[in-house]
Amino acid sequence: MKIMTNKKFTTVTNKFGMVINQCCASCNFREFSRLMQTRKCGNHCKKVRSSFVCDDWMMNEAMQKVGGSQGQVKCREYLLFVQEIRVQEQANNVELAPFLSTFNF
Which pairs with CB-CB distance under 8 Å and at least 24 residues apart come from 65-71? Predict the structure, then answer.
């Protein structure tokens, strides 16, 4: 295993076409200390920096999902908030904002 620092990251793309830097910061094996003060490689049990790179790099779950919503809001609480505003606007005969007319509640 060779861990090395490299100022030029190798980049990969996830299934949504988003470019991800291939480094310890985006690795599935990264771990943090209890107080979030140090970064540790869970695979090699060594202290690392976010810019380190090794041959065992594997994209973490969060990076795999980046770009998946394609700019759409998926948070249920926010969608309920928008729905409440839309119902109030309809009750007061207010013309809907153009972007709200695309929501199907």
Answer: 65/14, 66/14, 66/16, 66/18, 66/20, 67/14, 67/16, 67/17, 67/18, 68/16, 70/16
Burial class (CB in 10 A: 0-12, 13-18, 19+), 57: buried
Compute how many other C-beta atoms are within 10 angstroms of the C-beta atom of residue 5. Answer: 11
Q: pTM, whole model, 2 decimals?
A: 0.54
Q: What residue type is assigned to position 26 of the chain?
A: S
Distance CA 91, CA 39 (A): 53
Residues 20/13, Cβ–Cβ less than 8 Å: yes
pLDDT in tens, 59-83: 888 888 887 776 676 678 888 888 8
Reading the block at residue 17, the tokens are 């076409």
**Counting every residue, how long is the chain?**
105
Partners of 40 in the beta sheet?
Answer: 31, 47
